[in-house]
Amino acid sequence: MATDYYAVLGVRRDASQDEIKKAFRRLARELHPDVNPDPKTQERFKEINAAYEVLSDAQKKQVYDLGGDPLSQSGGAGAGGFGQGGFGNFSDIMDAFFGTSSQRGPRSRTRRGQDAMIRLEIDLSEATFGTTKDIQVDTAVVCTTCSGEGAAPGTSAQTCDMCRGRGEVSQVTRSFLGQVMTSRPCPQCQGFGTVVPTPCPECAGDGRIRSRRTLTVKIPAGVDNGTRIQLAGEGEVGPGGGPAGDLYVEIHELPHAVFQRRGDDLHCTVTIPMTAAALGTKVPLETLDGLEEVDIRPGTQSGQSVPLHGRGITHLRGGGRGDLIVHVEVTTPMKLDPEQERLLRELAELRGEERPTGQFQPGQQGLFSRLKDAFNGR
């Protein structure tokens, strides 16, 4: 024969199929008409395809090695195209450029379900100490009639007669390169490779139905707004009775009438008259742990705070709890009766405060003023 196919691909006569394939891919990337449009290159590209068609096929290679012409009965790949069997190699050309084969095969009817999320409201005490809640969720579950198969009882899925179970159909068209084979999902089975002649009447062939369930959720101590608790496998069941996704329970903490949460600390404000602030007192406070007395020391000023250690929120990670900070607000009476006014004036006289001069301090500076003073070294 005039053409040495081994020389065309640049391989030895005892080269393995893997070596032949690698040589073809390398040359295909270099000589493809989309990469190099030179007419001489196109002729060379046809030669390497004819060579690969022969050397990659065991029967054709045997005929060629014995001195015969394996392309004489196949339409002649070297005579203007890939030949009748040439685009059995089209996937190899695509693999040379994109690193993947064009064949996909049937897709599974069974797929994992989606994750789901539900919002759960709890109060401050439940967030502090933890709790257990029963929640109702409405999700897809496996159809009990067909057990997720999608077929009516007594029937089953059958192999698609259009694609014969491959899940795709192929079409051959001609181009300047020769015959091009393209594949697309089978329109009859939508790529599954099987059809369900008699769908389940309960789930309409989906393998799942919607159902409302009750789940018990353990809320750990220390959760906060936005905390999500994951319940593995309690989400939506997938099509075809596939494995369920996860369920996420998102915590929403309700506002408290007295306490405000800041991290793991609690804050509240107690208002006392000036006499109690001056003399000192004990104020009862209903905390999350029960009734306690807040000790207001004599001379307490408005704006001061009294900490109750370990009366805040439980730390979600690690032991212990935050603090309860009681902020004190001192009020001044706006109206006095004559007797109260007399007594208050006597107190002012005893303390030498009939005509106080007051103590003035600079007002608070703005941000830019503080930055200016910092740069000036003040």
Task: Sum up the structure in keywords.
alpha+beta; 378 residues; 3-stranded mixed β-sheet; 4-stranded mixed β-sheet
What does this structure look like?
- The protein is α+β, with helices and mostly antiparallel strands.
- Helices cover 23% and strands 26% of the residues.
- The chain is built from 9 helices and 15 strands.
- It has helices at 5-9, 17-31, 39-55, 58-65, 90-98, 124-129, 274-279, 338-350, 367-375, and strands at residues 116-122, 131-142, 158-159, 168-175, 178-185, 194-195, 208-219, 228-231, 247-253, 260-262, 265-273, 281-287, 290-296, 305-308, 324-331.
- The strands form 6 sheets. Strands 10-11-15-14 form a 4-stranded mixed β-sheet. Strands 1-9-8 form a 3-stranded mixed β-sheet. A two-stranded antiparallel sheet has the order 2-7.
- A hairpin with a 2-residue loop joins strand 10 (260-262) and strand 11 (265-273).
- Helix 2 packs antiparallel against helix 3.
- The chain is elongated, with a radius of gyration of 42 Å.
Give the SSE layout.
Layout: H1 5-9, H2 17-31, H3 39-55, H4 58-65, H5 90-98, E1 116-122, H6 124-129, E2 131-142, E3 158-159, E4 168-175, E5 178-185, E6 194-195, E7 208-219, E8 228-231, E9 247-253, E10 260-262, E11 265-273, H7 274-279, E12 281-287, E13 290-296, E14 305-308, E15 324-331, H8 338-350, H9 367-375
Parallel strand pairs: 1-9, 11-15
Antiparallel strand pairs: 2-7, 3-6, 4-5, 8-9, 10-11, 12-13, 14-15
Helix pairs in contact: 2-3, 2-5
**Share in β-strands:** 25-35%
Strand order of the largest sheet: 10-11-15-14
Indicate the multimeric state.
single chain
What's the total number of strands?
A: 15
Alpha-beta classification: alpha+beta
What is the H-and-E element order? Answer: HHHHHEHEEEEEEEEEEHEEEEHH
Mean pLDDT: 83
Main sheet specs: 4 strands, mixed
- N-to-C CA distance: 99 Å
> How many helical stretches?
9
Over all CA atoms, what is the radius of gyration? 42 Å
Q: How would the global form be characterised?
A: elongated
**Into which percent range does the helicity of residues fall?**
10-25%
The low-confidence parts are 73-103
